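Title: Comparing notes on inverse folding

I've been comparing how different people in this forum approach sequence design from structure. To keep things fair, I'm posting one structure and asking everyone to reply with a full sequence. Here's the target:
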């Protein structure tokens, strides 16, 4: 495929650059503004219809072409802009599931809040002992007139303590093969009978409280909150997980991280000598560069297939596996270079970078396990891309 931009695409790229030059303060200024910056940013990008840019226009999105989405994402990452909207989960997979499987009433009820950064959805898939084998989930929803009565437990639910709703997979029929008895419910987290209990992480500080257990005790959920047909949950999960895993076309972020890592190496010492004189470190940095290039080429291959309409859903597993491994490896190298330096004290690179190396290295479960473990991604790649036998 020819990756030169058409005149229209170049004009769009220039529009994004001009917008960022006008409306996106520098990182230092944003830090001074703190959380107050975000609502203004979300409002401005919403006016441009860049929140939900990949959603159809009739659903309130931007209707951007695949190339325009790529350009917008690339420019925003290059500018180190914050996320394009507050409701990451809503924009990433809850909204798309409603668009694909929901009815008009659900579209009118939920999509505007996602786009206006008023909702904060979380994802209720995993249960104690049920993560990778998701189809075995047990959380039960029994029909009672116009309502379901939900009982059971979910675990590892990111940000449920600050969420507005939980996109929940429940078992509506225990008597059919496991994949066929699952349904998808949109549940208000304020519903009576829901209890959210924090799980504290070993990483401390930034990750101290990210995940939660969520308990459902006779929670009554209107049947009108079911997305898709009863028993269609597995199809919805597969589509949503693909969205979750494919949102990681992060090559520009990796480039920035490597630039910072090289800068940090240039300012660091190993055993009293300049770190960059160390052959092992130099080889490591060169290998990161090669891995980023591999990610870029793989991303371009996916983009080509998407534009041609021949994309293979399993590519999102390849992206997730490669990008997560890279991010963690670079973060660990950053942390090794920092040695005993405190991330929060003094005018060091560590403090300027706000402990991001430490967060990247210690927070690996978030990027690596969340959305499916590496083994599961490898199974998908082996079976669906390489055509290897199942066992
Ligand atoms: C930071 C973070 C955030 C998360 N957020 C959410 C969330 O918001 N909502 C949600 O529902 N869940 C969430 N999860 C849960 C996550 O999806 C599960 O932890 C994950 O799917 C793994 O499931 P498990 O923990 O039960 O591990 P298990 O499935 O028990 O896996 C244990 C080990 O066995 C391996 N394994 C399992 N099956 C196979 C197989 N068939 N072949 C080869 N190896 C296998 C796994 O790779 C892993 O190494 C989150 C997890 C983390 C760490």
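Reply #1:
Here's my take.
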């Amino acid at each position: 495929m020819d990756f030169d931009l058409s005149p229209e695409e170049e004009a769009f790229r220039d529009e994004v650059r001009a917008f960022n030059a006008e409306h996106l303060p520098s990182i230092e200024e944003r830090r001074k503004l703190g959380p107050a910056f975000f609502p203004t940013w979300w409002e401005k990008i919403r006016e441009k219809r860049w929140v939900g840019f990949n959603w159809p226009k009739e659903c309130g999105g931007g209707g951007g072409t695949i190339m325009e989405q790529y350009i917008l994402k690339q420019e925003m990452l290059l500018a180190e802009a914050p996320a394009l909207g507050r409701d990451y989960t809503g924009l990433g997979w809850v909204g798309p599931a409603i668009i694909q499987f929901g009815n008009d009433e659900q579209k009118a009820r939920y999509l505007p809040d996602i786009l206006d950064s008023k909702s904060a959805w979380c994802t209720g898939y995993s249960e104690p002992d049920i993560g990778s084998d998701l189809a075995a989930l047990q959380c039960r929803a029994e029909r009672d007139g116009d309502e379901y009565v939900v009982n059971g437990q979910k675990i590892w639910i990111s940000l449920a303590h600050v969420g507005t709703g939980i996109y929940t997979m429940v078992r509506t029929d225990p008597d059919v093969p496991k994949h066929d008895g699952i349904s998808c419910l949109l549940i208000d987290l304020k519903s009576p009978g829901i209890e959210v209990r924090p799980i504290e992480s070993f990483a401390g500080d930034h990750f101290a409280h990210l995940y939660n257990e969520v308990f459902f005790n006779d929670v009554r959920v209107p049947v009108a909150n079911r997305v898709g047909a009863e028993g269609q949950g597995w199809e919805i999960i597969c589509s949503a997980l693909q969205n979750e895993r494919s949102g990681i076309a992060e090559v520009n972020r990796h480039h920035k991280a490597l630039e910072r890592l090289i800068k940090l190496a240039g300012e660091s010492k190993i055993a009293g000598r300049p770190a960059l004189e160390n052959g092992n470190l130099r080889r490591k940095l060169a290998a990161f560069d090669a891995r980023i290039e591999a990610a870029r080429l793989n991303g371009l291959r996916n983009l080509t297939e998407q534009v041609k309409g021949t994309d293979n859903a399993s590519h999102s597993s390849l992206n997730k596996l490669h990008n997560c491994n890279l991010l963690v490896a670079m973060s660990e190298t950053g942390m090794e270079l920092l040695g005993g330096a405190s991330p929060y004290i003094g005018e060091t690179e560590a403090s300027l970078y706000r402990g991001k190396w430490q967060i990247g290295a210690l927070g690996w479960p978030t990027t690596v396990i969340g959305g499916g473990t590496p083994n599961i991604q490898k199974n998908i790649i082996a079976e669906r891309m390489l055509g290897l036998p199942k066992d």
